[in-house]
# Entry
Amino acid sequence: MSLRTSRPARAGQYLALLAYLVFLAFPFLWLISTSFKSPRELGDLHPTWIPKDPSLDNYRQAFAEQPLLEAALNSLTAALAAALIAVVVATPMAFVLARHRSRLTTAATGWVVVSQAFPFVLVIIPLFLILKNLHLINSLPGLIMVYVVWSLPFALWMLVGYVRAVPRELEEAAAVDGAGRLRTLVSVTAPLLAPGLVATALFAFITAWNEFFFALVLLKSPEKQTLPVILTHFIGTEGVADLGPLAAAAFLATLPSLVIFAVIQKRITGGMLAGAVKS
# Structure
């Protein structure tokens, strides 16, 4: 039996992949289309893909009604800080869990995975009380602390796999040359972990950028709220959404994640492939 995939099977795979891409792209394309439609066209009983009279009025109205730029800056600050801190903290922890295997490290790794199953509702009250005692309620530092704690377990789990892929022989050679564990981690292991560090930081950034529940509960002042929370202000008290400005603001909120991933994904893939072919 040939190991090569037959043409019909390969065609089926491509069709399935195309259908999946269409499924993922439909909401985003519809969001873009809605953001350029007039209120009259949004109320049409027979909606169309392409706006009949596209305009930027929804974008102007969105910026006029809500402080989108200020909220975007808050989200960017919280997401970047959380991603950076999570990677810095998780890297040495991952090194220890990957290189010093024992029952304790196995139990710790299992607990890291299990902790991701905890729903937000179970932890929000203890977090709120802790941050209240630290006087960090309604502040970006408090929100950043929560994002770091929430993204750290999965970031640690990701980096453990990357560290285990680094050959031990390189670290042993560095130890023979007189390098300590910290020097080995910084000079030998960390450069080889670059694709993993970038992927982990990207995960932590997107998680913090899109997060809504913690920001809604912990931030009360409008000038400190993040972009996902500001998007809810386009929904009236009776639950009626201002679809045009909401679609425009939501589209702008998705752009940073898409741009960052588009820029970084080639480097991630290239770094992984380069590491795979090295002897």
Q: What stands out?
A: The radius of gyration is 23 Å. The CA atoms of residues 12 and 18 lie 10 Å apart. Residues 243-277 form the longest helix (35 residues).
